[in-house]
Amino acid sequence: MDAQTNRDERSVMRIAILSDIHANLPALIRAFSLIDELKVDEVYCLGDIVGYGGDPNECVELIKKRAVIALVGNHDLACIDPDKHRFLPPDGRIVADWTSRVLTAGHRRFLSALTLVEHTSFFTLVHSSPHNPNEWNYILSLDQARPQFDHFSSPLCFIGHTHVPFICGDDLKTFTVKKERRYLINVGSVGQPRDGNPQLSFGIFDTVQWTYENIRADYDIGQAVKSIEANRLPPSLGKRLSLGV
Fold it and tell me: What total of structural domains would you count in the chain?
């Protein structure tokens, strides 16, 4: 993707940051409808476009068309490299095998070309963590967040992977974005939220106003469940969507 590196957001105002779509097409379509309504200038994707859900090709195609920057996630990687299955839970391995079989050649090439980390004028973008991004570590606490600030120099680092949105300043005491601090921001998950709220989650950052908003919205969970069932994927993956776990 020729436009990925060294982006200059000074000419861009509103950026949507998506992560963990997990082949949930109804959620992604809803997210893009909101993005259009909110007049977002550019879209960045932090990875895990596929895995868990029943519409991997459709989701890859949408990200390919709409995202200026896209990164690789552990589920994306496992679908093109079976050696990476060790980074997935059992149900994730089952879906990775199925996804690998149904992905088109073009979409496999697209996922294969994605990188672990991208840097822009203001942002560091990574799926899991800025420290050892290829180890797919989870950041779920302030203690886990603390050392991450030593591994990026930009004002903001956006991550996904845990499916739980949060904002953490470099003082570990500031949880709203202010210009004088550096931040680690998890944008949550479009396709499989895990914070007890089944609504899709993504972030919008305004580079002029220097503000961040976590967007939550309902989508057609029933359609996402039907796609999982129709493709004979583990039923638990559909049940968890309505619970947000």
Answer: 1
